[in-house]
């Protein structure tokens, strides 16, 4: 790693890029070459420390870098050319910004003396990416390049993580300058804050007397790192408080844990949402009161006092007014809460907590994930139940695309550890999962990496089969194929008078033949009786697999909080929507 | 089997943005100290346009050449929750060193400079000069048929002067926007 000792500090900008990446401990770069990054690619060619993964589209490079970052906790790196290379990276950058994923994207730019002349493959990359990056820089002098690269990594991983971009004109890559090593880099950007002890004390006091507490955790716990996860688990087991999590936070507390309520939110579990609605103390740890979580704001958890731990001050009081705001890293806040709570005698309101648990058990007894089984068609929920059963306990990473399958995966798969679940939450990017699974597999070559997909999402980045084959990445593409844009179809059914406008998948490819065309394995399964064998065949195949699982076409995803409704007005299934219509009302509870 | 969502809900949107916070709109003056780097101003302005906040006035210039610092003074309006959000959102921009809500932090001096071109002859010309004197505006350019007045003061004072000049032949006005400092010994 220490490349600084046996090298001259004078080098070209292109060499500096490679040197800085090595200095930052980068082992993998996802990218696609083009005219404006040729000098950097030439340097990559002449070394063996950094592996370059050639994707088939720049969007996939960024999502792969996200998958790499989220499954390792390290910064992901993508390298693309100017103009269309940069504009294709925009979706990935926005995705990473919404989900707080630390990535560094390097873009080539036309030479400085041509900037502004509408040169070939010129785009105002800095202008275009400003609103979708945490920070971005155009480097006009080679002497500034190394320091900017180190600053970029620092900014990406510090505070609330996020994507950054460096735009490097081609003449800056060719010119020679002085390399500034990482060790000497001092950044002014130091966003960390320690939790306010008085506020921690107030939270602990509230915890001691709370009758109906609930922990509502989010991606911030996972971003904070393994210590935060360990502290969270200690806190939950020590207090006995029930815990729910957002889509982004799954795995921070194990799904097999006794206090686990399941995911909350629009398609969250009944018991989780009811606990949120009925609680008297809400501890929000590293989540951001997203609209998918809160439902109707003025009816959101009306009887609770709320604590909110977030490293980003702008998340506090953004949509929900909280009583105990704490701006700090999750691990620091959890450590302070645990220490203070223990120092004050580790008290909880045991009798009330038992009654609360009894109430939660009643909600749980509703078995909100129940679906109508079928002997003849594969229900998507059943497919995921079998996938869960047959892969449980394996060294497993799950990615998803976006839609119904994503929600079912979150409901039916159990996550025991953090960094095992890669999904596009904030932006909801169809086409995220496949390239993300490539990034995950590269970071964890021996692990089982499955992308749970819908056929429509999957087609958005299907060209990455080429990447998977080239690098022999045994990623399993588990496609729940309902020949529909399932979530769109569900909304059209429920909210738009069953007018299914453009929400079916016409002219789908034969996925088995498609797999074979790339030299991969394809498996088709349409009979529930064959499903277990087919899944085992997928798991036992050493290479990439496209698993075309033909599922029930009109299955809806429940539970569901209809938009504009509070948590206690969930729809629990097709039966409840039917009943609701007969009653002239919309919802059930 | 269509499902009817009750009236009053946002039935065709996933979002329900009805605020539970105070709706009283307040005007605030913010001082934002930033690294004097390319793109910082664009990031600040982009934040306001991207998140739908108001900018009533914005001034920016380098204020510390040695330290590479610029000072942006923004006059904005919003509910207390929006003002807090603006401050927090500004604060998390990497190149922003400090954000001060001068309105909230205590009394502040706010001044604006304006240039006004008045084209007039005869009585109007005399009256324009007389009013300029009362407002302590300076004539910085004069011809036989026109004046350019320079006036410094609060935005309200500049407004008042402009209103008086309008019937006397005000043709054009250029304003700098507000510059502001807190009163007393404390600094931003």
Structure write-up:
- The complex is a heterodimer of chains A (589) and B (188).
- Chain A is α/β, with parallel strands linked by helices and 589 residues long.
- Chain A has three domains: 10-184, 3-Layer(aba) Sandwich (Rossmann fold); 197-364, 3-Layer(aba) Sandwich (Rossmann fold); 380-550, Thiamin diphosphate (ThDP)-binding fold, Pyr/PP domains (Rossmann fold, 3-Layer(aba) Sandwich), CATH 3.40.50.970.
- In chain A, 39% of the residues lie in helices and 16% in strands.
- Chain A is built from 24 helices and 20 strands.
- The radius of gyration of chain A is 25 Å and the shape is globular.
- Mean pLDDT of chain A is 95; it is low at 1-6 and 579-589.
- By secondary structure, chain B is an alpha+beta fold.
- Chain B folds into two domains: 26-105, ACT domain (Alpha-Beta Plaits); 108-182, Alpha-Beta Plaits (2-Layer Sandwich), CATH 3.30.70.
- Helices cover 29% and strands 39% of the residues of chain B.
- Chain B has helices at 40-50, 80-91, 102-105, 123-134, 155-169, and strands at 26-35, 57-64, 69-78, 96-101, 108-119, 138-143, 146-153, 170-182.
- In chain B, the strands form two sheets. Chain B has a four-stranded antiparallel beta sheet with strand order 2-3-1-4. A four-stranded antiparallel beta sheet of chain B has the order 6-7-5-8.
- In chain B, helix 4 (123-134) runs antiparallel to helix 5.
- Residues 1-13 and 16-20 of chain B have low confidence and may be disordered.
- Chain A binds chain B through residues 126-127, 130-131, 134-136, 138, 155, 159-160, 188-189, 191, 291-292, 295-298, 312-314, 316-318, 320-321, 493-498, 562-565, 577-578, 580-581, 584-586, and chain B through 1-6, 8-21, 35, 38-39, 42-43, 46, 50, 81, 84-85, 88-89, 91-92, 94-95, 97.
- Chain B: Keywords: Amino-acid biosynthesis, Branched-chain amino acid biosynthesis, Transferase.
- Chain B: Catalyzes the conversion of 2 pyruvate molecules into acetolactate in the first common step of the biosynthetic pathway of the branched-amino acids such as leucine, isoleucine, and valine.
- Chain B: It comes from Rubellimicrobium roseum.
- Chain B: Belongs to the acetolactate synthase small subunit family.
- Chain B: This is Acetolactate synthase small subunit.
């Amino acid at each position: 790693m220490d490349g600084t000792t046996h090298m001259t500090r004078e080098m070209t900008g292109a060499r500096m890029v490679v040197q800085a990446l090595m200095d930052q401990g980068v082992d993998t770069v996802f990218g696609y070459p083009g005219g404006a990054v040729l000098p950097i690619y030439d340097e990559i060619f002449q070394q063996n420390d950094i592996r370059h993964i050639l994707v088939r589209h720049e969007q996939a490079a960024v999502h792969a870098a996200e998958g790499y970052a989220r499954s390792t906790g390290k910064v992901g790196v993508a390298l693309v050319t100017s103009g269309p290379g940069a504009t294709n990276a925009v979706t990935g950058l926005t995705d990473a910004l919404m989900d707080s994923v630390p990535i560094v994207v390097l873009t080539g730019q036309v030479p400085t003396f041509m900037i502004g002349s509408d040169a070939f493959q010129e785009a105002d990359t800095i202008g275009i990416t400003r609103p979708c990056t945490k920070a971005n820089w155009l480097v006009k002098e080679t002497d500034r390049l190394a320091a900017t690269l180190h600053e970029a990594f620092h900014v990406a991983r510090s505070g609330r993580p996020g994507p950054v971009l460096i735009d490097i004109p081609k003449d800056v890559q060719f010119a020679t300058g002085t390399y500034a090593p990482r060790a000497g880099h001092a950044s002014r950007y130091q966003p960390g804050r320690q939790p306010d002890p008085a506020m921690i004390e107030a939270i602990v006091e509230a915890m001691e007397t709370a009758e109906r507490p609930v922990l509502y955790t989010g991606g911030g716990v996972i971003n904070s790192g393994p210590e935060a996860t360990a502290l969270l688990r200690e806190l939950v087991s020590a207090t006995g408080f029930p815990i729910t999590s957002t889509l982004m936070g799954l795995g921070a507390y194990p799904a097999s844990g006794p206090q686990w309520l399941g995911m909350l939110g629009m398609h969250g579990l009944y018991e989780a949402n009811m606990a949120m609605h009925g609680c008297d103390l809400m501890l929000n740890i590293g989540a951001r009161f997203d609209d998918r979580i809160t439902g109707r704001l003025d009816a959101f958890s009306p009887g609770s006092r709320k604590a909110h731990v977030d490293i980003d001050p702008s998340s506090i009081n953004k949509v929900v007014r909280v009583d105990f705001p704490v701006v700090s890293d999750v691990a620091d806040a959890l450590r302070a809460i645990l220490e203070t709570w223990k120092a004050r005698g580790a008290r909880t309101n045991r009798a009330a907590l038992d009654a609360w648990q009894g109430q939660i058990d009643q909600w749980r007894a509703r078995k909100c994930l129940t679906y109508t089984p079928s002997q003849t068609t594969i229900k998507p929920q059943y497919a995921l139940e079998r996938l869960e059963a047959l892969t449980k306990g394996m060294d497993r990473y799950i990615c998803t695309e976006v839609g119904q399958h994503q929600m079912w995966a979150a409901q039916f798969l159990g996550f025991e550890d953090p960094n095992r679940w890669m999904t596009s939450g904030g932006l909801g990017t169809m086409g995220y999962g496949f390239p993300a699974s490539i990034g995950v597999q590269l970071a964890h070559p021996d692990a089982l990496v499955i992308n749970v997909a819908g056929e429509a999402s999957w087609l958005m980045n299907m060209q990455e089969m080429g990447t998977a084959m080239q690098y022999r990445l045994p990623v399993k593409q588990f496609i729940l194929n309902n020949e529909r844009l399932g979530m769109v179809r569900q909304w059209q059914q429920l909210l738009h008078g069953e007018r299914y406008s453009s929400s079916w998948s016409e002219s789908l490819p034969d996925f088995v033949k498609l797999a074979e065309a790339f030299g991969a394995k394809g498996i088709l399964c349409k009979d529930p009786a064959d499903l277990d064998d087919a899944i085992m065949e997928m798991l036992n195949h050493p290479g990439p697999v496209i698993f075309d699982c033909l599922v029930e076409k009109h299955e809806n995803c429940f539970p569901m909080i209809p938009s504009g409704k509070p948590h206690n007005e969930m729809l629990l299934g097709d039966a409840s929507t039917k009943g609701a219509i007969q009653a002239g009302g919309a919802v059930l509870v | 089997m269509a499902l009817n969502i009750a009236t009053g809900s946002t039935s065709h949107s996933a979002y329900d943005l009805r605020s539970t916070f105070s709706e009283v709109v307040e005007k605030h003056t913010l001082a934002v100290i930033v690294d004097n780097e390319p793109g910082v101003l664009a990031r600040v302005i982009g934040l306001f346009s991207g998140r739908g906040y108001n900018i009533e006035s914005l001034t920016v210039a380098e204020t510390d050449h040695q330290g590479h610092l610029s000072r942006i003074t923004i006059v904005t309006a919003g509910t207390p929750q929006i003002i807090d959000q603006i401050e927090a959102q500004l604060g998390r921009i990497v190149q922003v060193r400090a954000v001060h809500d001068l309105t909230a932090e205590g009394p502040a001096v706010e001044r604006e400079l304006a240039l006004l071109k008045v084209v007039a002859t005869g009585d109007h010309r005399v009256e324009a000069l007389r009013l300029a004197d009362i407002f302590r505006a300076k004539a910085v350019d004069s011809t036989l048929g026109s004046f350019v007045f320079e006036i410094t003061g609060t935005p309200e004072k500049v407004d008042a002067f402009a209103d008086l000049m309008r019937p006397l032949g005000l043709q054009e006005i250029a304003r700098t926007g507000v510059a502001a400092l807190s009163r007393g010994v404390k600094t931003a």
